[in-house]
Task: inverse folding
């Protein structure tokens, strides 16, 4: 049975971006990135708000060569070989891997203003239709991941979210865009992990 999963990187006081819209403090290090990659391998579809989609677009073009994790990615950085341009030498292997994962996942972008997309395997939906998401989930063979707190709030309100995965960064920003919707949300802790850089991963079931 597949799950609909909400994932977010947030500050310790619960924001995905500060009041100025900045989230530079949320950039994962190699250890966190590798862990995220393993989670994302089980995802078949992304549900994204427009802002989250636009944030993620660079992953489509940042690794402009054909490569595989087994052949070209060795150690902690992308190996230098005939398939990797010199200017990309030293890119973390986890970064290359995530770009590959992102490119292979179907994407649905919810937007009333976006008229075209610039990434592969991407469709536009004008409104968040809970029934359509339920139908998608019933036919899916891999998990569905929802990205962006605004569109996630609609999924939470419709009772669609099965799991909530938070990567809590060791920084307090004092305000901004909340990671979770307003109101009560009952959760059951399923897993936790602390990384060397101070980030804490919390995986919850939504009750």
Result:
């Amino acid at each position: 049975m597949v799950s609909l999963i909400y994932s977010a990187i947030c500050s310790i006081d619960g924001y995905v971006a500060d009041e100025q819209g900045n989230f530079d403090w949320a950039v994962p290090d190699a250890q966190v990135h590798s862990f995220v990659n393993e989670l994302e391998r089980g995802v078949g579809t992304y549900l994204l708000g427009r802002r989250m989609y636009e944030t993620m677009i660079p992953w489509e073009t940042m690794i402009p060569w054909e490569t595989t994790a087994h052949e070209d990615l060795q150690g902690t950085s992308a190996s230098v070989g005939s398939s990797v341009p010199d200017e990309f030498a030293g890119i973390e292997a986890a970064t290359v891997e995530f770009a590959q994962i992102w490119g292979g996942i179907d994407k649905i972008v919810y937007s009333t203003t976006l008229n075209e997309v610039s990434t592969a395997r991407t469709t536009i939906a004008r409104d968040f239709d809970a029934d359509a998401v339920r139908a998608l989930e019933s036919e899916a063979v891999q998990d569905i991941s929802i990205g962006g707190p605004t569109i996630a709030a609609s999924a939470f309100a419709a009772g669609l979210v099965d799991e909530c995965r938070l990567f809590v960064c060791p920084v307090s920003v004092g305000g901004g865009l909340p990671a979770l919707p307003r109101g009560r949300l009952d959760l059951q802790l399923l897993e936790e992990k602390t990384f060397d850089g101070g980030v804490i991963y919390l995986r919850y079931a939504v009750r």
The radius of gyration is 17 Å. The first helix runs from residue 30 to 40.
